[in-house]
Amino acid sequence: MADPELEAIRQRRMQELMGQQRFGNQQNSEQQNKAQEDAKREADEQRQVMLSQILSSQARERLARIALVKPEKARGVEDVVLRAAQMGQIVEKVSEERLISLLEQINNQTTKQTKVTIQRRRSVLDDDE
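and the corresponding structure tokens:
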């Protein structure tokens, strides 16, 4: 989708890393932490830009509401949508209805089956005879 932008970000990041190697250890570690935070922030921004291109406004709002309650589930849905877009499976913006059906599919796959078994303890006073 945005390959030239992504390549520019990678080049900038590589230049930052090469520049950091020239500094002292303590300054280097502080700068590495800052660079890692910056890289993470840039990756999140890039992710949000890609999602805004893929999802309709209603679908983005629904995903934001889901993220408030279950951030890990929202992140998983975002991953699925982004992967599908990168593979070319999504040709038009994802509507809210399609997002709902995707959520239902994910829920069906991740639903855990619980089974409760009750075992009665035998008392000393109970006789089987």
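(Above: one complete record from the training split.) The mean pLDDT is 82.
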